[in-house]
Amino acid sequence: MNPPARPLIPEQRHQEILRLLRREGVLSIRSLTDYMNVSHMTVRRDITALEELGQVSSVPGGVRLTDWTSQEPPREREFRAQLELPRKQAIAELAGQFVEDDMVVFLDAGTTCQSVVPHLAARKNITVVTNDFYVVTSLFAHPHVETIHTGGTVDPSSASSCGRIAAEAVKGINIDLFFLSTGTWNLSRGVTTPSMDKVEVKLAALEASSSCFLLADSTKFGTVSKFRVTQLDKLDAVVTDDQLPPEMQESIRELGVSVHVAPLS
Hints:
Layout: H1 10-24, E1 26-28, H2 29-36, H3 40-52, E2 56-59, E3 62-65, H4 77-80, H5 85-96, E4 104-107, H6 111-114, E5 127-130, H7 133-139, E6 146-149, E7 153-155, E8 160-162, H8 164-171, E9 175-181, E10 184-186, E11 190-193, H9 196-208, E12 209-215, E13 227-230, E14 237-241, H10 246-253, E15 258-262
Parallel strand pairs: 4-5, 4-9, 5-6, 9-12, 12-14, 14-15
Antiparallel strand pairs: 1-3, 2-3, 7-8, 10-11, 11-13
Helix pairs in contact: 2-3, 8-9
């Protein structure tokens, strides 16, 4: 983090704290005092003011956004399927525009990637590879799409497969476009997941693919899970919704990653 070039007034400090939290998820008091070159008490007063507005919450030794959590979203498929539906549908529609005839596409496990399926109906001679059982059953309505399921260890809560067997199956396929999904992503820590078994499959797909697009809505930005999949600068593009703050969009572009923004009606 590059410190401000000049002292900031309280309102500027508040906005800077919020900007940094959107980037990092959680910050220590020490990092804020060093960054803004102010006292411990000044930072504490700033945090108190933001807490009173409901924008941040104190944690031992630091502060986080009120809506930030290091915990993953609900894993059970039926709960996740109901979260942020307009965002998922808008992202999926935009993502579908990048699929061309004759492509081999990997759809990662998740409700956003499942939402891409209807937008593949008009494509010719495409193959979909997936570890998601709901994606497979959704593709039954599109018999012209060749479908490959990875197999592997079954995770009933996410209705998907993971682990070494699934990863080995992916490694044997030449994939043109990988749509990567996640419940947690962050500018500094990248794409993360709560399960090491899920990391194995995602990394195999990333290695086997010519291009990787992250499909993730803005409500998941700034969150972190236990295991890292990849830093954002290893991606080719991010497809998200227009509620991701413009400064965050620009920060991602500065990493050399394209950002495609789906408008919410």
